[in-house]
Amino acid sequence: MKLGWENDFVLVKVQTWVDGIEDDEFVGVGARFGTNIVSKEKNAYQTCLTRSDPRDCCGQPKNKLAGDVIMVDRGNCKFTTKANVAQDAGASAVLIVNNQKELYKMVCEPNETDLDIHIPAVLLPQEAGASLEKMLMNGSSVSVQLYSPRRPLVDIAEVFLWLMAVGTILCASYWSAWSAREAAIEQDKLLKLLFHFLTI
User: Fold this and answer.
1) Helices marked H in the chain
2) Which range marks the domain in which residue 103 is found?
3) Single residue among 109, 126, 147 that ends a domain in this structure
4) Is the distance from CB of 34 to CB of 119 less than 8 angstroms?
5) Fewest CB within 10 A of the end CB: N or C in the chain?
6) Model's pTM, two decimal places?
7) Residues 6+ away with beta carbon under 8 Å from 61
């Protein structure tokens, strides 16, 4: 398990449930700090989602966090500060909502030392944060599941498409060769027939 700032940047799937019913899935980016996120969906826990108060999570949250995943806004303090505050408050993970549509790589600042972070941190795009906010504001019970599927070394779909392309080329070449052979045979027949008429 990596700690500090050595994590690889990975895409993280955030599956949601609203009142126990499976709902939307969002995609975020894991931080360079904190613990790694499980790669298999079956190993990922379904955990209650809570909105941070204050929203930026730059100070001690007023709400109690009993292993909840806490959703916070980006800004006003460092990413690592938010993660540390969330961790100290009892959160099991922190979802940081970006203030832009695009995703952003969460890195540690130079000479940063406060990196004893043992919970995962994920950055979500602004639109995903707005959707989660709407779910929570409806008074519904919202839970999330975080996991980061590893991309296989060999993509079966790409291999299949490659085989199809090669097969198409081979078939076209065979058909072309067969057609040329048939054309040569027909031409030979015509020449023999013409020669026969000329010699009558």
Assistant:
1) 79-88, 126-137, 156-198
2) 11-147
3) 147
4) yes
5) C
6) 0.69
7) 52, 53, 54, 70, 85, 86, 89
Q: Are residues 159 and 109 in the same domain?
A: no
Range with top average pLDDT, 4-13, 61-70, 84-93: 84-93
DSSP state, 43? G
* Residues 169, 3: Cα–Cα separation, whole Å: 50
CA distance 96 to 91: 13
Q: Mean pLDDT, to the nearest integer, of 19-32?
A: 89
176 and 138, same domain (yes or no): no
Q: List, as one string, the DSSP characters of 109-139.
A: PTT-------S-EEEE-HHHHHHHHHHHHTT
- Burial (CB count <10 Å: 0-12, 13-18, 19+), residue 91: buried
Cβ-in-10-Å burial (0-12, 13-18, 19+) of 128 comes to buried
Q: Domain total for the chain? A: 2
Position 2 in a domain: no
